[in-house]
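Sequence only, no structure available. Ideas?
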Amino acid sequence: MISGRSSRGAPCGAPPGLIQIIAGQYRWHEARFQPAVPSTLGSGSGALFEPRICTIQDIYKCLHQGEFGVGHLLREVDRARARFEKEFEEAAPGEEEPLEEIVSPDGQILRINFRPYKAQMGTNPIAREKLFQSCVASAQIPRGSPERFFKTLEEFLQLNHSHSIQVHGIIYAFPPGIIENFLEGVEKAWRQTGQLPVYPHSATYRSYNAPAYRVVHRRVLG
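Reply:
I predicted one. Tokens follow.
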């Protein structure tokens, strides 16, 4: 499980993919919206900033999707299709975001962002349907280990505390205690219910990023 406040040393064996995932989240969903604002984390080498748009809740959501996918959202295909059609229709074509965002350390789980997808595919109904069917097929692929997920969360905690995540030379790190307190709540929910909580994006993240995407498995992408 999460070792909490004892995990403040350099990360041991954290996969490089995890650093790239978290740095990508800060790059696309934090740094591009506002200049970094100095935090009160203390002095040291390099500029040190606290994420203010891409919160710990949003990082958790990213890593949860990477481990478990989103099969729980596709149990009723008709409702899932209706939500997909509505969100896809409302997303304006744009290329400010990447088409794909890797969200799993093994590189198999991706977010496909609607806006750049529409910018590339236009109004092609076949392309739209293929994306939806990729979502449905992805939800059928068994995936997810609570033990591995807790290990990933622990590695993220270590990377944060060792100031290992940088974007354009700027170190992004949450203040001590923020991640531990959040993960203690996750562990408590796990102990009490046997279920890992599934959180929405934070209100701040939604306000800036207007997330419009679907999570798919690389195996089903053509």
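Confidence is low (pLDDT under 50) at residues 1-12.
Hope that gets you unstuck.
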